[in-house]
Each structure stands twice: as structure tokens, then as C-alpha cells.
Amino acid sequence: MSSLPNALWLNVSPALQQFDRPLLIHLSHHVAIAQWEYCQTPDEPMSLEVAIDLLDDYLKNQNRPVDLIGHSTSGLLGLLYARQHPEKVRSLTLLSVGPYPAVDWQAHYYAQLQKLPCSREVLLNQMVNNLFGHQSPGIIREILQILEQDLMTSLSPHTLFRRVSFSPSKVSVPMLVCGSADDIIVDPYTLEGWQSWLKSGDRIWQCPKGRYFFHYFHPQKVCEQIVDFWDLPPLSQDRTASLANFKVSL
Hints:
Residues 62-117 form the AB hydrolase-1 domain. GO terms for molecular function: hydrolase activity. This is Alpha/beta fold hydrolase. Keywords: Hydrolase. By secondary structure, the protein is an alpha/beta fold. The protein folds into two domains: 7-101 and 168-230, Alpha/Beta hydrolase fold, catalytic domain (Rossmann fold), CATH 3.40.50.1820; 105-153, no CATH class. The protein is 38% helix and 14% strand. The protein has nine helices and six strands; from the N terminus they run βαβαβαβαααβαβαα. The protein has helices at residues 21-28, 48-59, 73-84, 105-115, 120-132, 137-153, 188-192, 214-217, 219-230, and strands at 7-11, 33-37, 66-71, 89-95, 175-180, 203-207. Strands 2-1-3-4-5-6 form a six-stranded parallel beta sheet, with helices on both faces. Helix 2 (48-59) packs across helix 3 (73-84) and helix 4 (105-115) runs antiparallel to helix 5.
């Protein structure tokens, strides 16, 4: 029997990975899941194509199609990969990814930075409120550091001078699209835009709340939707892992 994972969590935003951990812990009780990471360095060009090639190199060792999962830009990478290599993907789960899949928090941030007469610091503070809701001053400072780091190290294709767009299109593999009813980045109206591109068996699910990082705030609910989509029985092996070092609240 292969020791390779059945599911693969994609992460191209290392600074944000702590927000993925609670859901990864829940999923690990149901399926063998691995995490694939791409770390962007300051000295290399930002290229989704390079990341796709590296992901394909990794999956060459996989003897069966995998279930891909990704949040935001990581989901964009999974979508682009599934379009190019559908034979290697059993299913695709997208979290906070709209039919125009390049739209992420950084796209909103740079658009506002270009339009509004305010400083970077003021705008990032506003982004914390938009992404996480009201938080204590200490938590705000920690999240600000995370967002600053994400601007420098994530594979998001956006900058102050250029914002990238990908047109909607179908993907041939089964797809689950999840979002949150109170997310302003991929709002419910935007999420419903997937309806024109869904196949039989594809699903859209909205978490009642949780904003852009709903999978962090409500990992059990999101896990239930994903596992039901996969139609997988739970594993008997008990698995545990540590959560993030700090908590944010709704």
C-alpha cells in the first residue's frame, strides 16, 4: 500500500499557514493529508507557472490522483494545476476563491492603496478589520505583522502597479467551492458567480460567518463539508497537533 497522501493541502502563502492548521487537524482525522508549500524569495520573479511545474514534479511520485485543497492564492494554484493536469487530480476544493480566481486580499489592498489618500499602516489596519473583524490591540499588532510578511513572501501576483486577472472557466475534475456569508473579498454574490461554471456533482457551500479566513474560525464545519464531498470514512487512528499560538475571535 502506498504511503503517499490521499489529499494535498496547497500553501503558497507561508505567513498565513497558521490559519490553515485547525482545519488540517480536523481533516487529518479522516484522511492521510500532506501539505505542499511554495516559498517566494525576494530574489526570484513571481511566477505561478514555476509553482505549477514544481507541484507537478512533486505529484509525479503519486501513484493515484489526489484531492487538492487551497485557500485564496493557494486555491488559485490548485485551480490552474487542475486545468492543466486533470488526470492527476481526483477533486479540487477551493476556499475563498471566486470565479475570477486571482481576486485575493492583496488585490483589494493594492486597489485601495492606489485610490485612498491614507498611509500603508492605516490601510493595513483597516484590512485587519475587514478580514478578521474587531480584535484587541495586541492581536491587531500580530495580524499586521502577518499581513506585512504575506505581502513580501506570498505568491499572490498583485502589486501596487499591476493587478492580474484570470477569466472564469470550467474545470473537468469534481469541485467544491466554499466561502463565507460575511466575507468582503469573495462575497456571497461573487461566490454564486461559480454557478455558471459548475458541472453535475460540483458544489458551492457558504459558511454562515468567519469572513475571509472562515476555515480558521469554523474548521469543524468546513471539514464536514469537505469530507462529505469526498465521501470518505473517518480514520481510526487518532491524530493530534498544536494550534496557532494566538487566537482571534469573531
